[in-house]
Amino acid sequence: xxxxxxxxxxxxxxxxxxxxxxxxxxxxxxxxxxxxxxxxxxxxxxxxxxxxxxxxxxxxxxxxxxxxxxxxxxxxxxxxxxxxxxxxxxxxxxxxxxxxxxxxxxxxxxxxxxxxxxxxxxxxxxxxxxxxxxxxxxxxxxxxxxxxxxxxxxxxxxxxxxxxxxxxxxxxxxxxxxxxxxxxxxxxxxxxxxxxxxxxxxxxxxxxxxxxxxxxxxxxxxxxxxxxxxxxxxxxxxxxxxxxxxxxxxxxxxxxxxxxxxxxxxxxxxxxxxxxxxxxxxxxxxxx
Length: 288
Ligand code: PXG
Description:
Layout: E1 2-5, E2 8-11, H1 22-26, E3 29-37, E4 40-41, H2 44-57, H3 66-80, E5 85-92, E6 109-115, H4 122-127, E7 129-133, H5 154-165, E8 170-174, E9 180-183, E10 187-192, E11 195-198, H6 209-221, E12 225-227, H7 232-236, E13 240-245, E14 249-256, E15 259-260, H8 268-283, E16 286-287
Parallel strand pairs: 7-8, 7-14, 11-12
Antiparallel strand pairs: 1-2, 1-6, 3-4, 3-5, 4-16, 5-6, 8-9, 10-11, 10-13, 13-14, 14-15
């Protein structure tokens, strides 16, 4: 595997960044996760745009243009010779002195890894997965906007620990007010009375790129997709539930806190969405 760091390729064993990089010292940096299917990078421009927005939000100046970043991603996936995989793209604050100030860091570093990711076991996709509600809440937007895909994922990691220790595959995260925000690494959708509903971004959900794709899919299937504030009540009483993410793709949910959702199996609307999503990933995207 060849890893891109600041314009050069390194083998896995030599791909390293400094212990003085503030990405490591303070989680100071941003990232993206991008899937590629059948020789095409899915929603590449959308991911690059979000990366630059995340960087802008934390006052980090990426040392290349969006076009150059897209080129670097294409170069990396080509270099690795796989037609299907997952790109992890990071921009760290760079090497600085000890101390929080990012102004001691001379230049941000760009790292691009093209590998594989399997977020959930295969049977989750056919049978559906178990969700539990995490005690760990999404941080308030005034602390750190959930829109920033930063290298500081401890909030999500702690929530994931809760889910796994409870024997569930994924954890539901509420915001400070108790409304549903999202899961630790995916957005959440429910199906109720033939409509697809998802919490608004302002409830503390990341503006997921797969989430946006579900709105497109809904339009093409003639199924209404709406943003709606929700509590656990709406999930307990939903007909169907599914999660979305670049890493997760579209995965059905069959229980929340051991309570069955709908018929406790992947529902018909979810299955149609999964099929349409597969089609979209196969037939769209930037070829490399
Ligand atoms: N919410 C959170 C908190 C995320 O981190 C999503 C939703 C889904 O967004 P997209 O744009 O991918 O549809 C994410 C996605 C990884 C990894 O290891 C990345 C994510 C989730 C899980 C694992 O690269 N980010």
